[in-house]
């Protein structure tokens, strides 16, 4: 898997562009800065197959509609429990004082725990990881040993739970019962900040005991 991480928006959200050796590609959490992302995907000569969304927060989905229109691809995820967040995107924009975007819904909700999403030559297992957002999901690529899990688990940190639909107990359960069951050498690419591994977080994360 080829990966390029492009931090987007004032929140420095880690948007990931991934592609295989045939240049089939997907983009995960395009939170904003659509022109920059489009330019980069075109410059790399990639054949974009779809847009994957971990959860319905503005800084993760803000450029999704523009990318969908430009590349004529579909959006997949998050879990439909995030409907309230997608509906509240205009309020989210005002709350954070950033660019205003219209409400939308993804083309496909990913509601089935453990279902496999095949895209761009990769196989992602879908895990429901509520707590930071009610419909938050993770995209786990077991063959590549890499997990795209948004704002659930950070390097020595965890996602905030004070936003709409957030729940601290759910978040800790998502980490302990699902993420910490993944192999220790699984690389975690979070929505913000540096990457880590499951093993490192089990040892060092001060918020999950
Ligand atoms: Zn978030």
From TrEMBL:
List the keywords (alphabetical).
Answer: Hydrolase, Metal-binding, Zinc
Q: Name one Pfam family in it.
A: Lactamase_B
Q: From the UniProt record, which GO molecular function terms apply?
A: hydrolase activity; metal ion binding
Query: Which SMART domains does this one have?
Result: Lactamase_B (SM00849)
- Keyword set includes Hydrolase: yes
Q: Which Gene3D superfamilies match?
A: Ribonuclease Z/Hydroxyacylglutathione hydrolase-like
All residue ranges annotated as the Metallo-beta-lactamase domain in the record: 12-192
Cofactor or coenzyme needed: Zn(2+)
**Name of the protein in its database record:** Glyoxylase-like metal-dependent hydrolase (Beta-lactamase superfamily II)
């Amino acid at each position: 898997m080829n990966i390029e991480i492009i931090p987007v928006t004032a929140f420095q959200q880690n948007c990931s562009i991934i592609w295989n050796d045939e240049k089939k590609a997907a983009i995960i959490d395009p939170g904003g800065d659509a022109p920059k992302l489009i330019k980069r995907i075109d410059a790399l000569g990639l054949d974009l197959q779809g847009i994957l969304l971990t959860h319905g927060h503005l800084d993760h989905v803000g450029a999704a509609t523009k990318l969908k229109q430009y590349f004529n691809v579909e959006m997949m995820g998050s879990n439909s429990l995030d409907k309230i967040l997608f509906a509240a995107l205009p309020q989210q924009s005002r709350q954070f004082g950033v660019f205003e975007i219209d409400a939308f819904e993804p083309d496909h909700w990913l509601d089935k725990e453990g279902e496999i999403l095949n895209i761009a030559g990769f196989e992602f297992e879908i895990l429901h990881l509520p707590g930071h957002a009610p419909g938050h999901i993770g995209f786990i690529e077991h063959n590549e040993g890499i997990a795209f899990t948004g704002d659930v688990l950070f390097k020595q940190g965890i996602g905030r739970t004070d936003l709409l639909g957030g729940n601290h107990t759910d978040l800790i359960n998502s980490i302990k019962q699902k993420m910490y069951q993944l192999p220790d050498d699984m690389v975690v690419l979070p929505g913000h900040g540096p990457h880590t591994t499951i093993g490192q977080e089990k040892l060092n994360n001060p918020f999950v005991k």
